[in-house]
Every structure is written in structure tokens, then in C-alpha cells.
Structures
1.
Amino acid sequence: MSTTCSSATSLPFFLAQGLHNLEAFNEALAAGAWGERAAQVGEKLRQAVDMEHWAAFQEGFAQVCDMVIEVASGRRGAPPGTVTFLSGDVHHSYVSEAWHTRANERRGVDPLRSRVIQAVCSPIRNPLPRSVRVGTAFLSRSVAAPIGRAASLATRVPRPPLRWTYVEGPWFDNNLATLEVQGRGLRMWWARGVVSGDEHDRPVLQQVADITIDPPR
């Protein structure tokens, strides 16, 4: 069997679930789901806060999800141990994992035989204000997902083909990440630079996280 299937995307494919739902809601709003006046508000909001992630382009997001399901379930050949998205550009780092939606499970859709992982590292970035860090951390929690989902349902955004959650993070350090393929699994670790006292010419690396992704049994 294949070891791993990786895809690099400049912006994360799986955002925090709460933020994903809010961006999907905004896309529908800007497209006229609640009329022309609301569409103008939605478009201004989209530009003001850079709602430009995969969640804001639901048709493309669903198509890629379908491709992931085909690969991970073995419809395109022997499934790899992992299907992994690598990305950054969100001023923080995290790891998330995706599964079938409960609706797919009830319908008996082919089970995923690969672990579907999103690994994010934003190594050189502007520090986020504390208020934004708090908001990002809140949106990464499962409690925030229903809030965003309620908003997206109000504009009839369909449920995504996959569901996901953070398994590690978020971390707001200025990190560097390393990925190592280990058989059919992965090892990933994040490290940040630390300056001791006034020794600015001798920074050392301090580990932030070390995660092993074992393949499914």
C-alpha cells in the first residue's frame, strides 16, 4: 500500500469548524441568499476581514472533499496510510483530523481507510493581537461549531461531505515545522526560537509539539 498522500495549499483546507461555517455563510450572503442589500453587506464584510479561505468557495471545497473520500476509501486504488494537507498563512499553527459526516456513515458510504489530516504551520508571520488569538482559539473549539453552523443553515449552505476537529493546537508561536514519513504514518514536530537573556546571536530551538500519526489498523 502507499505510504502517504500529501497536498500543499497556501491556505488551510480545514479551518476551525466555527470559522469555516461563518465563511460559508458569508459566501451565500454575498451571493444574494438574503437579497441584494444583504449581498452588499456580505461582500463588504468578506473584503474587510479577508474571508478568502476554501470555506468561502463551497463548490470547490466540496469537490476536493469528494476527491479525498475517493482516495481515502480506496476507490482510486490502494488507500495510503494518510491523506495530509500541508498549509500555513493563518498566523498560527495546528493539526486537525477529518472523518465522514454522520449522514455518510448512516448511508453506508465506503469507510475511510486512510487518516485525513491537516497540518498547519505559519513560520514567519505578524503576531496576532490578543483579542484575535482569543477569538481564534474559541472558534477552534467544538462549542463554536454549532454557532457557525446555525448561521450557514440560515442561508441553506449544504453540510460538507466531511467533518473535522482540531486534535492539537492552536499555537501562536513563530514556529518551524518538520514532517517525517514513517512507514505508512507520519511524525510531525513544531519548534520555536528562544533567546536567552541578551544572547540574540545564539537563539535555540524549543519544541512546541511532537505528534505521531499512526495509520489506521
Note: The chain has one domain: 4-172.
2.
Amino acid sequence: MPTVDLNADLGEGMGDDLALLSLVSSANVACGFHAGDLATARCTVEGAVRGGVSVGAHPSYRDREHFGRRPLDPSPTQLATDVSEQLAFLAAIASDTGGRVAYVKPHGALYNRIVADEEQASAVVRAIAAHSPGLPVLGLPGSAFLRFAAEAGLRPVGEAFADRAYRPDGTLVPRSEPGAVIHDPDAVVTQAVALARAGAQSLCVHGDTPGAVLLARRVRDALVAAGFTIAPFAP
């Protein structure tokens, strides 16, 4: 049977993380720079370890005020330092709970910026490679981030979004534009199955979306009904 990963952004203090952990196979855990804190991250990682869910670091720009969704311009050195700090933060928590950081997925504006910004993409990749050579990274197919990751010996994994609208070039519609987030559950489910059939290795359902738990359950059920096995890409 074909396999697909189902991931969600967790540890942000905005949704029912424990319920989502029973549905997803990978958890992108906030590292404190855009949301979350030590207690929240620990609770989320502990829940993931108990449930056999893969733990991923979800680093961001240093931007709690705007939830990491505002583009920033740190120097490459500062950005690499910020990413390194976040990876170390989550790695320590994972180690304390008997788990490990199995992959990295940048968050929000940083995720979108490193699709095309080669300077920032390179800085993020350098930080990840220095922290853990060969670590899988989750990003948009065709992005500079995944290209540099492959060149650095990291494992690039293409991600698709069940609940986000796409432009014709395959990039995401910015959240500042109408229709960027898909709220119709039927449309989300239809898109998720289509993306999986098109070869997406991992599908994201956002944990801060209203009704996220019900939506994730519907997506998971639809994928299973379509013949997919739900399993982490980085166990």
C-alpha cells in the first residue's frame, strides 16, 4: 500500500495538541521563537513519544508578536544562530523525554521566504547540517531550501498542504490574500487525497485552524479509504 505522512504544527498553545497527536504521524513542534514555551514543548514532545509520532523541530524567525508570519531580514549569521538555538532547545527536550528530533520544518514566513531566497535558505541549511548531519528536512518541492539541503547531505522531503490554496507556479497563496486558507472541510479532504495521489510525501493540516481536530480526522480517514497507509517519513 502507498504510504503518506500526515503532519501538523503543534506546541503553539492554540489548539488541542493531544487530540491531534492521535491522528497525525509527525508533529512539527514550536521552538519558542514564534510560539510555545518550555512547558508546552515538553508536553507536546512527551505526547508524541508516547503515541509513536515523529518529532520535528519547527523553527521560526524571532517574532512572537506576529506569530512568525512576518518576513524579516536577519543577517545570514544571525539567522543561522537563531535556527541553531531553536534546534538545541527542542533536542534537549526530546532527549529528556526519551525521544529525538527526527526532522526540521521551518515555520511561517521563514518557510515561505526560503522557497526563493537563496541567502536565507543557505543559512538555515548550514545551521541544520551543523546540528545534525543527514537530518531530513520538510519543505516546499522545488524550493531553494530543499535544493541546498540535498547539496549539504540532508534528506529533502517534499510537503503539500491540505488546507492551503496554491498559485499556478506551485507556491502557496500568501495568507494576506483572500482564500489563502481553505476552510471548507470537503475541499480540504479532496485536495489532500489528490495531493497524496500526486506523490506528496507529507501532508500538513494546520493545528491552529478552527476545527483542526475534526478536519485532521476527516483527512486521515479519507486517505486510508483511498488506500494509503499513514506513517512518518522520519520514524
Note: Helices lie at 17-21, 38-51, 76-96, 108-113, 118-131, 144-151, 185-197, 212-225.
3.
Amino acid sequence: MSRDEQGRPIRLITVSREFGAGGSELAREVGRLLDWPVLDHDIVHRVADRLRLDDGTVERFDEHPPSLLARIASVLIVLTPEMYSFAAPIDVPSHDAIAAATRHVIEDAAASLPVIVVGHGAQCIFAGRPDALHVRLVAPPDVRVRRIAQRMNTDPATVSAIVQRADHDRQAYVQRYFHSDVRGELLYDLRINTGRIAIGDAAAIVSRLVESRPTGDDADTLPGGHSS
């Protein structure tokens, strides 16, 4: 951030995350500490409402590139058939249409600040905003596999394949729709390894960064008497 940007209040936080690194948990805790709304899983419902689709249909495409269905079916459909149901081809919407609607939903949400947005390339959508803080959560693969295996009550071997494909799909999503590498260091202001730093401590770090900035009233007048 430039010196001028460092003097502005933070009113928007984006949370990018590796699968299993705890992005949703961090966003919820930061939202609680700051009393800010969080846009995370509700994105699916808002996109479905915008496109007049059911939530389940949109969820199958959420944050995935167009080739997801074929890949995920080959790995999981036999192992855990109760977890996945696939629409008939005539009912399958366009990945690009869902991605475009997702971007509109996120941009609409950012019209009412403050807000925390999880995933979906928000760090790219708001890359030029001086009032945004971009956070990236990572963790070692074995830590993430263990977390997801416990959450899903599934064996680690199966979960390892899920984690690898989810990471790949999120990277491909950001590359396809924002022409950026989701792992690019300069996309983020803060990168946290939740394999070493607990979610609660990470949330405290983020909230302190926000609270250390001037309030909107304090930042209305810049040095020299000019209004922002």
C-alpha cells in the first residue's frame, strides 16, 4: 500500500484461502470482533436468486472452472455418492454465467460497507481499492487434510484428493476469470499460515490492523486540508 493508502480506513476485507486453511472460520471471527457482515456461503444463494436457479445447482459450480464436474466425478462419485448429485446436461448452467453473476453479487455487496468477502476472486475484483485489506490463508497440506477429514468424517486418503482438486480448481478459477495467479504474493497485504497461527490469533491480527487505521471521519481530510 502507498503512504496515502496506509492513512485511509479499512472498510473492506477479502479473504483468500487454500482449501482447509480456515478462511470461513477466520472471516466469521473477524466479523464478530469488528461487528461486520460476512459474505461467504450466502454468495451461492444470492447468485441462485439472481439467475433464478436453485441453490444446489449453483453450489456445484461455485468457485470452479468449467471442467470441474468431470474431474470431481472421477474421484468422488463412487466413494461418496450421497455427497454429490449432478444435473442433467440440459439443466446445467454456464460456468461463465455463474462466475459473472458471482462478481455482480460481490460488487453489489461492496456498495454497502463495511463487509468481509470470502473467496471468489474478491482480492482481484477490489485490487485497486485503497480501503481494502486483502488476506491470504495457507497451511501445510497434512494439516489441511487432517482438518477436513475430521470435519467430513472421511479417511485422509480420500480427503487428500479432495484438497488437491479444490486448490487446483480455485487457482484455475482465478486464472480464468481474473487472469491472475491466486498464489501471487502482491495480491495480498497479509499472508497467514494457520498451521502455525491459530484462527483466533489470526483474526485478532486482522482486526487490530483494521482498528489501527483512522476512522472514516478522521480520514475525510487529508494533509494540506484537501478532502478525500
Note: The two ends are 17 Å apart (CA to CA).
4.
Amino acid sequence: MLAQALRARQASDLPRVRALNDWVLHTRESRELRAQTEQMGRSMLEWLKNRGVADDRIAALAALPPAPSWPVAFALAAAHSGAPARDVLLAFAFGWCENMVQAALKAVPLGQNAGQRILAALSDAIPPAVQRALALADDQRQAFSPMLAILSAQHETQYSRLFRS
């Protein structure tokens, strides 16, 4: 989805960006997961606004109802950088992996060395996953993680600032 959003951003294809943003929001199965992607999207939007770079795409991002999702907002930031799509996806995936390992370090008894070993193993899996993602068509894209949705729904009303970004 990020690769497709990046291409849509680079082409200034606002209807496509809107459709991709809607897809992301509709695939977030719980209020918690949706709030997370919306908050991270809004935070990225604020960062982009504060850079002081004039770009109509920032206003278009801000106008996405009800909010820009994290991957769509990240795609706009990446489009500003001019980095190749493969590099953008590698950075995004590594950031996600690093965040998950950091969350595990805080939530379970896991030492720094174990966290580094997990991150190294995840890092090895990123390049092939990125190559596959770059080649996916719309009808091949999916967001299927039923246990994540079930576990999220079981505690979505529990407030914790620990993992909100």
C-alpha cells in the first residue's frame, strides 16, 4: 500500500490517494488500531506543515476525511525526499520492525541482546518483502491479521500512553 501511495503522491493523483487512505482506514479492525494510524498520520502532517515547504499536497493530505492514515502521510513525506520507492519501503519496514522490538523490550522480559538478535533476523526478511510489495497489484493487497484484531478489540478501551505514537 505504501508503494502505491508513493506512486500516487508522485503523480499528484488525489483520487487515488483518497482511495488508498480509505482502504487503510477500513482495514483497521478496532477503534484502537484506527486511532493509532490516524494519530500517526496527523503527527506526520503536522511535521510536514512545520517544515515550511509550500506544497499543495500537504493541504490535500489535511483534507482527507476523517484524517490521513500513517502510510499515506508517510508516502507524502517520502515523495518530498525524492528517494527511490525501494529505499522508502526499506526505511518504513525497518522503522516498523525497530518499533515492534522496542515495544517488546518494554512489555516483556526481553534483554537488549535478545532484542538486537530479533531485529537482525527481521532485518534479513525486509528486502525480499519490499521486492514483493513493489510488485503487488491492487487485487493482491491484503491486510489480514485476525489475531491482532481480536486481541486489539479485547483491550481497545484500556487507556495507555505507552504505545501511542
Note: DSSP finds eight helices and no strands in the chain.
